[in-house]
Specification:
heterodimer; A: alpha/beta; D-Maltodextrin-Binding Protein, domain 2; 2 domains; 5-stranded mixed β-sheet; 13 strands; B: mainly alpha; MetI-like fold; flat
């Protein structure tokens, strides 16, 4: 009996320790990120590595490439000067908020829509890209728009992206399957795990460009302004980001980068996404 | 932390249900498949032994996630449609069966050869001797390590989260993403896994003591 009580005691002690850890500890996330960046000469960016056109790992060179990666580099130079370095860290839709909160990254530029819920816990810059949610289906699919997602159909989404909440509202009868990242979600669509894949049109166009037997249908049914996310309270860095975004827009860098990545995407209108 | 649990009670409990269901199916199935391959591994015919050995070596040296993804992604494209829960449970079964095969084979090997020889010289066939004499003794020997495998199996069932299998880990990931409260969510998920695995751990310890006395 005494032994059992002791075992229980050990378990209890373990749990208490966990609770204590959760209650205390103030990480680097709350110190001024702009001051730190100026000191070290670099900004640590969270970027996507699974999203064509925005941020995708080039398996040949081992580097992440895309519109957002170029934007991150341009913004860093704008804020820290020509010697400023952009350090890139891979994030996914479900790791980006925890990584910001823990201070692993200073800012996230990763197809992240500005939403009221997210604004409660994060700071956002102004929008740098106006996307809208749409559907990707195999060519010849019976699904032509979000209205066709009736009882018995299933839609694939990505964990931690707000497109999942939107589709639950737009097509409440459809079953929603959430996968870890976009490459997995697209693979699942190819494996017939769902009837359609839903997320922002920019990302879907990238998939359609990669495999033309899949097409974007039905237009957009939401508007998704992408913003750069920073931890709550990083107001100085947020201001610097907004200023840098304005400067990039004025000196033509922004439009040049947009054209560089999106000009050969079928059905894509640069004016439509310029906020 | 309590807050996360009460506000997401439904999803968490349903996730726990799927985790338990998947674990129970995989436990029964992997025990059967594992035992069959263990018997193949100790067969007198060389080619049968090779089949058993090849299966075990092949499966136990591949990550569980890779096996599961194969069933989720490749099998539906070429063979038969299956959802994430099915793919995950099959992956879990096959993966665990390789370890169980090794465990059971070791158990049979630990039964003194005299037991088999004695049974055979008393007129029992190989099958009779194996089933009635050697196997019951072997099971008692391997209970502790089988227990380990079963506890691992419950924890490994979190692989379902990667193929949208609606299990506890999957729900945890969704709640963490929705509430942005990663730490507390995974803490709750961890405690719920403990609720399943701790009693298993104690039950195994009881069985171990009970059977070693008999």
């Amino acid at each position: 009996m005494a032994k059992r009580i002791r075992q229980f005691g050990v378990l209890l002690a373990g749990l208490t320790l966990l609770l204590l850890i959760s209650a205390c500890g103030k990480p680097v996330a709350d110190s001024d990120a702009l001051a730190r960046a100026q000191q070290t000469g670099k900004i640590v960016w969270g970027v996507k590595a699974d999203t064509r056109l925005f941020g995708l790992m080039n398996t040949k060179t081992g580097k992440i490439e895309g519109f957002e990666v170029d934007m991150a580099k341009a913004l860093t130079k704008q804020i820290l000067g020509q010697s400023g370095k952009a350090e890139l860290t891979q994030i996914t839709s479900d790791t980006r908020v925890p990584m910001l909160k823990a201070g692993n990254v200073d800012a996230v530029i990763g197809t992240m829509s500005i939403t009221p819920d997210r604004q409660k816990v994060l700071n956002f810059s102004k929008s740098y890209f106006s996307a809208g949610q749409s559907l990707l289906v195999p060519k010849g699919s019976k699904i032509h728009s979000v209205k066709d997602l009736k009882q018995g159909t299933s839609v694939i989404g990505v964990q931690g992206s707000n497109s999942v909440d939107n589709i639950k509202k737009a097509a409440p009868a459809a079953r929603v399957l959430q996968l870890a990242d976009y490459s997995q979600a697209f693979t699942a669509l190819k494996s017939h795990q769902g009837d359609a894949l839903t997320t922002d049109n920019g990302i879907l166009y990238g998939m359609s460009q990669q495999d033309p037997s899949y097409v974007v249908v039905g237009g957009t049914f939401t508007t998704e302004p992408y913003g750069i996310a920073m931890n709550k309270g990083q107001d100085r860095l947020t201001k610097a980001m907004n200023k840098a975004l304005d400067q990039l827009d004025k000196n033509g860098t922004y439009e040049r980068l947009l054209k560089k990545w999106f000009s050969d995407v079928p059905g894509f209108d640069v004016k439509e996404v310029h906020p | 932390m309590i807050n996360i649990f009460t506000t997401n009670f439904g999803p968490l409990i349903s996730g726990l249900g799927y985790t338990l269901l998947s674990s129970i199916i995989a436990l029964v199935a992997s025990l059967i498949i594992g035992t069959v391959f263990a018997l193949l591994e100790i067969s007198h015919k060389k080619w049968v032994r090779v089949i058993g050995k090849a299966y075990v070596e092949f499966i136990r040296n591949i990550p569980l996630l890779v096996i599961t993804m194969a069933f989720y992604v490749i099998v539906p494209q070429f063979i038969v449609q299956m959802d994430g829960f099915t793919a995950g449970t099959i992956g879990l079964t096959i993966y665990t069966s390789a370890f169980i095969a090794e465990t059971v084979r070791a158990g049979i090997g630990a039964v003194p050869v005299g037991q088999m020889e004695g049974a055979r010289s008393n007129g029992l066939t190989y099958t009779q001797a194996m089933v009635q004499i050697v196997f019951p003794q072997a099971i008692k020997i391997v209970v502790p390590s089988l227990g380990n495998q079963f506890i691992n199996l419950v924890k490994n069932s979190s692989v379902l989260a990667f193929v949208a299998g609606f299990d506890l880990m999957y729900q945890g990931k969704l709640i963490a993403a929705a509430t942005f409260n990663t730490f507390d969510t995974y803490l709750v998920v961890g405690v719920l896994y403990l609720v399943v695995t701790m009693p298993m751990s104690y039950a195994m310890r009881y069985l171990e003591k009970h059977w070693s006395r008999a």
